[in-house]
Amino acid sequence: MEEAALQGISPVFVGWHDCGQVLHTHRSQSYGRRVVRHYEIEYIVFSHSGYILTDGLPLQTIPHTVFVRRPGMEAEGVGVYRSVFVEFDPDEAARRLAVLDGLPPVIFQTEEPTFGEDFFQSLALPPRPEPWQLLAWKSRMLWLLAGLLRQAAAGGGHSPGDDAPVRQALAYIHRHYRESVTLEQLAAAAGYSSGYFCKLFKKVTGLSPLQYVVRCRLEQAKKRMLTTRDPLETIMLEVGFHNYGYFWRMFKAVYGLSPQAFRQQGQNGLPPGQGSEPHPIDSGPEL
Fold first, then answer.
1. Angle (CA) 32 144 50, round 5°
2. Which of 8, 20, 134, 190 has the greatest number of beta carbons closer than 10 A?
């Protein structure tokens, strides 16, 4: 039954949205909470902060990653990022497909290099597409789904049960990010061994546990930088960093600017980091 439904899937172009049309200047600004109606795939073009709440999970908007959503999910984008997404409907005879429901909510684009920004931009159809353009678009959509399914299968698939222990770890991070947070503590909060927990956490969030801790601290530091006049060294210590050189390097890796330049742009009323291109970070061996 599932195989027949999969063979009959027929993507239909519904819409194209670029969050950059209303580029937010603060992480507290929301793009609105909604319930997903169709299967969706969203590609992060670039991000200077922010996350997408996916069924309550705060998943970081890391450039060149793909978010996959299924009907019924709640989604809310928060912060400063740009993305493009496409909705699609399966055939009416197969409203829900278990194979698509089993895709993880976020997929790193490391194993499918052909699915980059140019590929996603090519998914935009003109107002009155020619017949050949419609067929070419459908073929690209099916190729995209095949690639995402192949990558997810290589990673062991995704189960809704994977989210619960990760939620417990995230709650621990947001309570204790100012303190020294170890992998062992996070694994214990989730109820798993360190090795298994690391794989599970990255499969669900797209980041390693320690990378997520760094991101959480940086977001808190950025908020204080834009809303207080406290010295950077004071802010750094208050959010859990103990080495200014490490804080400076991680901040620039995520936001594309030094802490000083970021703060200056924010005080001048400009979108912090606009025009730069940050990259996913390596949190390093120590936090």
1. 30
2. 190
